[in-house]
C-alpha cells in the first residue's frame, strides 16, 4: 500500500493535456488513480494512523490482561478434583448477593478460575456484567471485576477495545474507525496498481537515495502488507455502524445470517421448580444437571451457561472458544427435565456466517492466539511506517522545503467512456453499501469541481486583463 504517491520523475508537473483519440488503457487511468490515491492518502491517513496505533495496542491487550489480572483468573494451587458448578455459584452469590445471575463460565483449564456473571449490579454499566472469580477446587472467591462483551474483556482490555472502536466518544466516535476501514482497501488497492505499473527498475530500493529510496521502501513494505490491509478493511466493516448494517441485511437476504439455538421450552415450567429463584440465583442442583446434559451432547470446555430468561425458556449452554479450531456449538436444556430441546452445531452454520465468525476473530487476534496477535501488531506497525513515509514523500516532492503540489486536475477527462461509465457505476454501488466511502468521495469530487471552476475563471480573467493591457 502507498499512502502518498509519487510521479515517475521529480520534475515539476505540468497541467494534464487534453485527451485525444489515442488515449487508451492504463495511460488514461493512471493519472486518475494517482490523484485519488494521493488525496485519499493525505486526507484519510490521520484516521488510519489512529486506527493502526489503537489496533496494535488492542492486539497486545490480551497479553496485558493475562498479566494484570492473573491473581483473579488463575488459581493459587491446582487441586485434585473440581467442585460441582452449583457449589461454585453458591459461593459467588454468598460473596456477591447483589444483581441477577446472567451466565456462568466453568473453569476451562486446570489452573483457571470459574466466572460467575451478574447483571443489574449497582455501579456496573447496564451493558456489562460483574464477573466473580471462583476457585473451582476450594470455592474461594478470588475477586470480582466488570466484564464486557462476548470475549469476556476485563477493565484494561475493555478500555483499549473502546478506544480503538470509538475513541471513547460513543456511537459518534465509531465513524472514525468505519471511515478508516472504508478507505483502507481503496488506498491499498491504488498503491498496488501504481506500484506494479511502474517499470521494474524504478521499484528497487538498493542503490537509490532521497525520494526514490523513500518510494522504494514505501512501496515494498506496502506490497507485502497489502493482503493484510485488505483483510482488516473487510472484516472491520462487517461490524461497523452503516456498512455493517448493510452487510447484515445482505446476509439475511441470502439466508446466511448467524443462526441461534431456540431457547423456547416445550411448555410452562414455572410450577416445576426449574429456572431461577426469586433472588436471581439458579435453583440448587439445576446447574450440575444442565451442564451434564450439555456435556453428553459433546460440548467440551470452554462453555457458558445462560439461565432461562423466564418461566417459559430453557437454559442455553454454548461453547465460547473462538480460537482454532473454533468451538461454537450450543444446546438448549429444559430446566425441569434436564433434557436437550434444541441443538445447534457450528458445522451447520451457513458459509458466510462461518467466514464472518472467523474473520472477526482473526481481526481481533483470538483465532490463532499469540501468533495472530503478533501479525496484527506487525500490520499496525507497517501501516504507521507507511503513513510516515507517505507524508515524507510528499515533503520531498516539494524539494524538502515545503509539501509538493497536488496531482493536477482533469484526470477523469482522459478516461475513455467505455471505461469511465462502468467504473462510475461500480463506485456508485460501493458508495451506497459503504456510505463512509461514498459520501466523502462525493464531497471530494464536488469540492474539486468547484475549485477547478474557480481556478478556470480566475485564469480567464487574468488572460483578459493581460490582453487589455496590450
UniProtKB/TrEMBL annotation:
Q: Does the record's keyword annotation contain Transmembrane helix?
A: yes
**Keyword set, alphabetical order:** Membrane, Transmembrane, Transmembrane helix
Any one Pfam family here would be: PepSY
* Superkingdom of the source species: Bacteria
Q: Which residues cross the membrane?
A: 36-60, 179-197, 217-239, 374-394, 415-433
Supply the InterPro entries for this chain: PepSY, PepSY-ass_TM
List every stretch annotated Disordered. Answer: 1-23
Q: Key word Transmembrane present in the record?
A: yes
PepSY domain mapped to chain residues? 82-143
Entry protein name: PepSY-associated TM helix domain-containing protein
Question: Source species, please?
Answer: Streptomyces gottesmaniae
Amino acid at each position: 500500500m502507498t499512502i502518498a504517491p509519487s510521479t515517475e520523475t521529480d520534475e515539476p508537473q505540468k497541467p494534464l493535456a487534453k485527451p485525444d483519440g489515442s488515449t487508451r488503457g492504463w495511460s488514461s487511468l493512471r493519472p486518475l488513480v494517482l490523484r485519488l490515491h494521493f488525496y485519499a492518502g493525505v486526507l484519510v491517513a490521520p484516521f488510519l494512523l489512529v486506527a493502526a496505533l489503537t489496533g496494535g495496542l488492542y492486539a497486545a491487550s490480551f497479553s496485558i490482561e493475562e498479566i494484570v489480572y492473573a491473581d483473579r483468573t488463575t488459581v493459587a494451587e491446582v487441586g485434585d478434583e473440581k467442585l460441582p458448578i452449583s457449589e461454585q455459584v453458591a459461593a459467588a452469590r454468598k460473596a456477591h448477593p447483589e444483581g441477577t445471575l446472567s451466565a456462568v463460565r466453568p473453569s476451562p483449564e486446570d489452573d483457571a478460575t470459574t466466572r460467575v456473571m451478574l447483571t443489574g449490579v449497582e455501579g456496573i454499566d447496564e451493558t456489562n456484567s460483574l464477573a466473580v472469580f471462583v476457585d473451582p477446587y476450594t470455592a474461594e472467591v478470588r475477586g470480582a471485576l466488570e466484564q464486557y462483551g462476548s470475549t469476556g474483556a476485563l477493565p484494561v482490555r475493555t478500555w483499549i477495545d473502546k478506544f480503538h472502536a470509538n475513541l471513547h466518544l460513543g456511537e459518534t466516535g465509531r465513524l472514525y474507525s468505519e471511515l478508516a476501514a472504508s478507505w483502507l482497501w481503496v488506498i491499498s488497492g491504488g498503491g498496488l496498481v501504481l506500484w506494479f505499473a511502474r517499470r521494474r527498475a524504478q521499484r528497487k530500493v538498493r542503490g537509490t537515495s532521497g525520494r526514490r529510496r523513500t518510494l522504494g521502501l514505501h512501496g515494498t513494505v506496502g506490497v507485502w502488507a497489502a493482503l493484510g490491509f485488505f483483510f482488516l478493511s473487510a472484516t472491520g466493516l462487517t461490524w461497523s455502524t452503516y456498512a455493517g448494517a448493510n452487510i447484515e441485511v445482505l446476509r439475511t437476504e441470502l439466508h446466511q445470517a448467524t443462526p441461534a439455538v431456540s431457547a423456547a421450552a416445550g411448555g410452562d415450567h414455572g410450577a416445576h421448580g426449574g429456572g431461577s429463584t426469586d433472588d436471581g440465583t439458579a435453583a440448587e442442583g439445576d446447574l450440575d444437571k444442565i451442564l451434564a446434559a450439555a456435556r453428553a451432547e459433546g460440548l467440551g470446555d470452554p462453555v457458558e451457561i445462560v439461565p432461562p430468561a423466564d418461566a417459559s425458556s430453557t437454559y442455553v449452554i454454548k461453547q465460547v472458544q473462538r480460537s482454532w479450531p473454533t468451538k461454537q456449538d450450543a444446546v438448549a436444556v429444559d430446566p425441569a427435565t434436564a433434557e436437550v430441546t434444541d441443538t445447534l452445531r457450528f458445522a451447520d452454520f451457513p458459509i458466510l456466517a462461518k467466514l464472518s465468525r472467523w474473520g472477526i476473530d482473526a481481526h481481533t487476534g483470538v483465532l490463532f492466539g499469540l501468533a495472530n496477535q503478533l501479525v496484527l501488531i506487525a500490520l499496525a506497525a507497517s501501516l504507521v511506517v507507511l503513513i510516515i513515509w507517505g507524508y515524507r514523500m510528499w515533503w520531498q516532492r516539494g524539494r524538502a522545503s515545503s509539501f509538493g503540489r497536488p496531482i493536477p486536475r482533469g484526470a477523469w477527462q482522459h478516461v475513455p467512456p467505455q471505461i469511465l461509465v462502468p467504473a462510475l457505476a461500480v463506485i456508485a454501488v460501493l458508495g451506497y453499501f459503504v456510505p463512509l466511502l461514498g459520501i466523502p468521495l462525493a464531497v471530494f469530487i464536488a469540492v474539486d469541481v468547484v475549485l477547478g471552476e474557480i481556478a478556470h475563471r480566475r485564469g480567464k480573467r487574468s488572460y483578459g486583463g493581460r490582453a487589455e493591457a496590450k
